[in-house]
Structure formats: structure tokens, C-alpha cells
Amino acid sequence: MKKALIIVDVQNDFCEGGALAVPGANEVIPYINALMEENDYDEIVLTQDWHPANHKSFASNNNRKVGESIILNGVPQFMWPDHCIQGTFGAEFHQDLNRDKVTHIIQKGKNVEIDSYSGFQDNNHFMKTGLDDFLKYHDIQLVEIVGLAMDYCVKFTCIDAVNSGYITCLHFNGTRAVNVKPDNGRDAIYEMIEKGVTVLG
């Protein structure tokens, strides 16, 4: 059975000191590096938030405050600080992440009009990113998922992987939650398990 490791959004803006830093984010990098070193993955894929500066998920572009919600193209949208803007340092992968064995990069969130938490598709399920096509082309049947953040981009990538027919495993030690609300991370785990994701300790 061919397997892939999907590393979600380990970018400077989500790490310590970033515009949208996830608590404990830097702690997952050595774990992810060890996974790549100790396992034989057929493919290793990075996803990368890659927003235009005028992206409508940014509070600054809607005259809103960070933490408010709006309806964006029929989908509820949390208002985020400006982050992972194309071509900026914040959008780059963290320098400590070992990319020697990476075989593919998927960029997401490029459409000004709609956000894309999942590595597979945007939030209104209208545009695919190409990740599913890439995995199927390479006959991948099992995906292991790590990265940032557990209660947003990791969760939706995991759920979309299950829905796309992959055996899907989340490495709990390879992810951290934003926890806008204190229970968001815990609730994300329950939701993923309910959807068919296997959570590895």
C-alpha cells in the first residue's frame, strides 16, 4: 500500500513570532522531521497558504476586527489577521522544517473571494487544489497528516482525505491547535474521529 505524508502549512506566520502564531507550533517541527527520517513515504507533500494581499478572509480588508465572522460567498468566514501573503517571509516554510524529501507543494487560498483551509479544496467546495489528482496519479491509498493548525487547516484536510477515499491518519504529536475557543482543538479531534480519521498518539 502506497502512503504519503501531508505536511500542512508549517509556515513562518503560523509559527512563533508569526502574524497568526499557533501556540506550541514550533514544537511539531522536530517531530515532523523525525517522521520523514524514520519512515519510507512514497510521496511527501507540503501545503502552503498563499494569499493575495487583498484576500477577503483578512479582517483588514473588510473593515472588521480579528475574531469577527462574516458570510463570504455563502460560507461563514472567520476574520483573520493578514497572514501568509504571497511572496512574503510569513508565507515561507519555517527554516527548521527539513524539505529534502519533499516531492510536491500544493498552494491554497489563492482566490481572493474564498478561503481554503483544506489542502484538497476551497471552503465552498468549488475549486480543487490538485492534491487529490496528485495522490491518485501516484496510487496513494494511505495518507498521514501533520501540521498547522489542528482545528482549521489540518482538520479540514483530514476530513477531505477521508471523503476522497484515503485511509487517513493524523499524528497528534505533529499538530497544534489555534484554540480561538479553549475547546476547539479537543472538538476537532472528536469531529475527525467521527468522520473516520485514525488519530495516532
From TrEMBL:
The record ties this protein, via PANTHER family, to: LD05707P, PYRAZINAMIDASE/NICOTINAMIDASE
Which keywords fit this entry according to its UniProt record?
Hydrolase, Metal-binding, Pyridine nucleotide biosynthesis
Which CDD domains does this entry report, sorted A to Z? nicotinamidase (cd01011)
Tell me which species this is from.
Chryseobacterium taeanense
Q: Which InterPro entries match?
A: Isochorismatase-like_dom, Isochorismatase-like_sf, Isochorismatase_Nicotinamidase
Name-wise, this protein is Nicotinamidase
Q: Where is the Isochorismatase-like domain?
A: 4-189
Q: In which pathway does it act?
A: Cofactor biosynthesis; nicotinate biosynthesis; nicotinate from nicotinamide: step 1/1
Q: Name one GO molecular function term.
A: nicotinamidase activity
Establish whether keyword Metal-binding is in the entry: yes
- Entry-linked Pfam families: Isochorismatase (PF00857)
**What are its E.C. numbers?**
3.5.1.19
The enzyme's main class, written as a single word, is hydrolase
Q: What protein family does this chain belong to? A: Belongs to the isochorismatase family.
Q: What's a BP term from Gene Ontology annotated to this protein?
A: pyridine nucleotide biosynthetic process
